[in-house]
Amino acid sequence: MTAPNPAELRAALDERIDETAGRWLDEALTDIATGARAIGTLFPAAGRKCGRGPLVDDAAESGTLRTWSSEDAVRALLLTALPSTGSELGTEISALYRYGDAAEKRGVLRGAGVLREEAELVDAGLPLVRDALRSNDTGLIAAGMAEFGARHLDAPAYRQGVLKCVFLGIPLRDVSGVPERADAELARMLTDYARERSAAGREIPNDVWLVVDPAQLHPAEEA
Amino acid sequence: MRIFDPHIHMSSRTTNDYDAMYRAGVRALVEPSFWVGQPRTSVGTFVDYFDGLIGWEPFRASQYGIAHHCTIGLNPKEANDPRCRDVLEVLPRYLAKDGVVAVGELGYDAMTTEEDDAFAAQLELAAEHELPVLVHTPHRDKEAGTRRSLDVIRESGIPVERVVVDHLNEVTVEAVAESGCWMGFSIYPDTKMDEDRMVRIMRGYGVERMLVNSAADWGKSDPLKTSKTAHAMLAAGFEPAAVDTVFWSNPVGFYGQSGRLRTETSALGDGDGTTFAGNSIERGKR
């Protein structure tokens, strides 16, 4: 549930972007920090200016950066440049999310995990996570279940989030907090889900075995 | 055959249509914002609609291996409703978004002064944001409406190569061809234009600056009309290269002027609609 820090993001990004994009990013970071330009005008352009592909090469890499795209990393860095703190920062990220396209919303959800943790920021960020988890866009849901969401969602919402990921085919290894937050109730929910699939003669997603004990799938037969 | 539908209202279509379009060769499309059948009564409903065009709808399209872009604008019909006029205020926010490749649909419905104002204001926004413009021509009094649209475009000073004038027919094509604007045609089951008439027009005017679309929406329309017209062109003796010009190079050339066109997501689709293209996350089978 520990998000990459800004230095890690920048280092990975520098492997990905050319000099022009790097310059754009440096100027954007300075302008946001000094208030010369509003983050709202820079946030939408992150993908256009710095690319959109995966942040790191190896799709099999197990590190936290594996699920990040270059534009996610750029947007997270832009957030870290904001001079505001507390509820003011919360208001700014809420506006970026509200007025953002799907990619910008993902940037806010992932970026929130990189920012210094503050109670007011958590209060502002949680409704955004819940909004994302209500959607059916797998990219948004996965970002909602990234580090920030995984750290701050309460247990019922976190369990529902994990179940929704399994339901939509989002790999659980991309979901932050598994296995640390996988409790008995989540195991029960996923076991029920696996039973339902089994009863329907449908394939059981492999991911459920990260949480479900196969022996519990057909307890009657075991007895 | 690769197809780019330069004008189709996917929000009113089903995922079965996306599937059928992919199978017919559609790999990219542009969804212009327009009227939605039921008149809207507030800016809020426009905002939710625009958010769908840069949010849910591109996601839905990507699941079927199709790259989705949109145009954003206040349509002429609703420009007449004072409750919707403030939509003009929120447009700049959307014109900055990645998936937005033009301003539109603009133009005339009943040629009122309110429509004049909204048209001119949005042509200015297009110039500011360096975006192409999609101009709708009216269903009624079409020829006069087309001429008046061309006058407004000329007066605005926007470069003509950045404007497409859409829904043309045998009567209105000539003036648009002469203007230097791109010529748009909507192929409908039995109204605006059909495949064979389209082929005849292309015999007369060639394939340069021609954009042929299905304009499919919630009315009687067919999202495969692009493919059907392409086949009608081949049957009429057009070379495959000419078909590719009309159904791929032209829309890429026109909307590419935005600098925001992305057609690469289409290459990532696996053809059976089960991979979420453009993202490393696999969608799996539900």
Automatic annotation (TrEMBL), chain A:
It comes from the Bacteria. InterPro entries: EboA_dom. This is Sugar phosphate isomerase/epimerase.
UniProtKB/TrEMBL annotation, chain B:
It comes from the Bacteria. Keywords: Hydrolase, Metal-binding. InterPro entries: Metal_Hydrolase, TatD-like, UCP005295. It holds the Pfam family TatD_DNase. Residues 266-286 are annotated as: Disordered. GO terms for molecular function: hydrolase activity, acting on ester bonds; metal ion binding. Belongs to the metallo-dependent hydrolases superfamily. This is TatD DNase family protein. The lineage of its organism: Bacteria, Bacillati, Actinomycetota, Actinomycetes, Actinopolysporales.
